Amino acid sequence: MDIRIRPIDPTEHTTLGEITANAYLHDGLLDFGESDAYLHELRDVTKRAASAEVLVATAGDRVLGGVTFVPAPGPMSDIARPGEAEMRMLAVAKEARGRGAGEALVRACVDRARARATDGCTGIVLSTQRTMHSAHRVYERLGFTRTPDRDWNPLPELDDITLLTYKLTL
C-alpha cells in the first residue's frame, strides 16, 4: 500500500473526525462511550486545524487516518513545555491498521519537529493511554522514551485515568 502523508484538506475534516472518534470508541478508549465529552473534541477537526497542523495518511483518494501536530505550547497542547512540539489524537481506521499508516504519521510529526530545531524545538512529546500497546511499540521503535514524571490525569475526578507520556529528544 502506497501511503502518503500530507496536510488535511478542509473537505476531509468530517471524514477524519469520524475515523478518530470511531478509533477511540471502538478501542474502548472513552470511558463514557457516545456520551463522552472528549468525543466532540475528537470529531472537531476544524477546531484543531485552526490552531495546529492536522496531517492525514492517504492511499489513493482514501483517508486512512490522521494526527494533530502542535508545533509549540498553545491552545492545542496538553503537555508541551517551551521548546517542545506535541503530537495528539493519532488515529488510523480499523481496516487500515497494521499497514504502516500510524508509523508514517508519527514519523511526519518527528520530521516537522526536527525542521523546527532552528526555532528552538528540542523535542516532541505525546500522551497515550495505558492500553494502546501497539502505539507504544511504534513510539519506542522510533526512539521515544517514557517520561513517567509527566504522566497526568485529564479528569482528576476519575482516579483511574492516567495518561502515559513519551518524549523524543531531537
Automatic annotation (TrEMBL):
<protein>
    <submittedName>
        <fullName>GNAT family N-acetyltransferase</fullName>
    </submittedName>
</protein>
<dbReference type="InterPro" id="IPR000182">
    <property type="entry name" value="GNAT_dom"/>
</dbReference>
<dbReference type="Pfam" id="PF00583">
    <property type="entry name" value="Acetyltransf_1"/>
</dbReference>
<dbReference type="InterPro" id="IPR050769">
    <property type="entry name" value="NAT_camello-type"/>
</dbReference>
<feature type="domain" description="N-acetyltransferase">
    <location>
        <begin position="3"/>
        <end position="170"/>
    </location>
</feature>
<dbReference type="InterPro" id="IPR016181">
    <property type="entry name" value="Acyl_CoA_acyltransferase"/>
</dbReference>
<keyword id="KW-0808">Transferase</keyword>
